[in-house]
Design goal:
By secondary structure, this protein is mainly alpha-helical. It has three helices and no strands.
C-alpha cells in the first residue's frame, strides 16, 4: 500500500508548523506515530478554540 504524497506533505507541514521540528525529524517518525501527533495537535487546537 502506498501513502499519498499530498497526505504526507500535509502531515509534515502540520507537525512542523506547530512543533517546529525539522523535515528529517518528522519523516523519521513511524507513520502511526506521526498520525498520533497530528491527532494530538488537532485536539489541542480544538480545546483552545473552544476556550478549554
Amino acid at each position: 500500500m502506498t501513502y499519498a504524497a499530498d497526505r504526507i506533505y500535509s502531515e509534515v507541514a502540520y507537525v512542523a508548523y506547530h512543533f517546529h521540528w525539522s523535515l528529517e525529524e518528522i519523516l523519521d517518525l513511524e507513520h502511526g506515530e506521526r498520525l498520533r501527533y497530528v491527532a494530538e495537535i488537532a485536539n489541542i487546537n480544538t480545546r483552545i478554540s473552544q476556550g478549554r
